[in-house]
Amino acid sequence: MENPTLSLICHTILLLSLGFRYSNGQSYSLQMYHKFSHEVKEWMTSRHGLDTQTWPMEGSNEYYKTLHHHDSARHGRNLAEYSSLTFAEGNETIELQQLGFLFYTVVQVGTPNVTLLVALDTGSDLFWVPCDCQQCAPTSAASYGLEINLQTYSPSASQTSKPVTCNNTLCDLQNQCSKSSDQCPYNVTYLSENTSTAGTLVEDVLYLIPGDGSQNGTVVKAPITFGCGSVQTGTFLEAAAPNGLLGLGIEPISVPTILHKSGIVSNSFSMCFPANTSSGRFAFGDKGSSDQKETPFIINKLHPTYNIGVQEFYVGNALVKTQFQALFDTGTSFTYLADSVYKSLTSNYHLQTQDTPLTIDRSSVPFEYCYNASNRQSINQGRKITFNFNGGNNFSAIQPLVFLSDVTGKLVGYCLAVLQSSSISIIGQNFMAGYQIVFDRDELKLGWKEADCYDLEYSSSSASAPNISPLQSPLGPSSFVGSPDTSYTSSSSGSTPKQSISPDALPANPNPNSTSDATHLNSFFLHIALSFIVAIAILTIML
Predict the structure, then answer these.
(1) pLDDT for residue 178
(2) 125: annotated active-site residue
(3) In this structure, are residues 143 and 123 in contact, taking their beta carbons and an 8 Å threshold?
(4) pTM for the predicted model, two decimal places
(5) pLDDT at position 484
(6) Cα angle 51-53-57, degrees, rounded to a multiple of 5
């Protein structure tokens, strides 16, 4: 009895063989047809008696839906379900001076879900929140002069919380697991002096909504892994991130990586930093726009971070020819430059100023170069600082200054908000002001475009500047009843090895003048070999 699959392969080879055309004794062309094309429909009907009347019409909604389902099945949910996602309370971020000049956003985790105000940090990977505290910052609003109730998360109070065990691929401290407990510990140290967080890893749900304003009422319950931080030190006990920190780095444990590996959203995110207000925007999955400028990331395989390369920079009209790398870090308020770069930039800035130096207590203001000024209009704006990144695109600091006022609110002067570092250079939040910054982890590149943060396509908030108001009480499970939601099964506890994103070297272009033996293959065998390969490929697609 004839094998129908083998028959189909043979007929496909025949069809493709007839499609090859001989040219100049060594080149071949192949006529290709889409699997839903008229030609393929006729061939499948005449050869195999298949009813192709039910096949979708090209260009119809069903046509694209069928192709999408095929791709999703073929790639195992690697295609993103949503074009962009943001937090359940909206895509708004807020800069809070009382909490270390960092940008914060409101997130909801757990069941029933608690509402937390967390700092956004691209310079680290772990999302952690204070819980089961032994040494944590105060969470009372009065401690920070805010009208915001800072809540706390407890794994024992959440119905969806699960401990992360020591054999989990996301557990980096397996050698520190105790015999009495199989729960994975964590300990993260930050660049700030004596600043760290420690505790155990847990898994729970993070509530998200479509970031482009579509599918109103949809709530995505995304399982993520994060830290239950019982012990904090350093600046975490003073003011920075008292309610938790959301690391947005490249490592497998970061929330963007987990969301991407779950197939929920693309491996990218964006943050918009306002130039003149305290409210910005955030979106998972956003890849920016076609007219944004870009530069490639320089990825260290041992510890991947968002490093970029600087070829040279301008201070006003002065060109400084020096190359260095810098980390784009939203968790750092100001910009830090390594010694030699710092001296070149600040000396050129100082030489071009006509304002008199401002005498100031360096213990209260950390900046070295400060000047007298009675109004902002009198400050010379011609000393623009512009970096030329790898790839040739320029990035200008729109507002590199901080302004100083007396107790009455009267302007007394300004400072160049750049600090000296012994080794590492960091582009901080102040240099990102006025831009939408895109961290494209698929393409391993940084994108930027000037933006006011209120006229972005993915924005789901009001176009007017928001008021900082007290947070509402935490949403209970009933808050989402009656609204369509999507839940995802976590894959974080699987046995797949941990991966770090790193660029793969592209193969070198073949030498067009080379005379390899492949050029002299007998044309007949080349013809049959190519026919068979393409036949198998098309058969795989059709099945």
Answers:
(1) 79
(2) no
(3) no
(4) 0.72
(5) 43
(6) 140
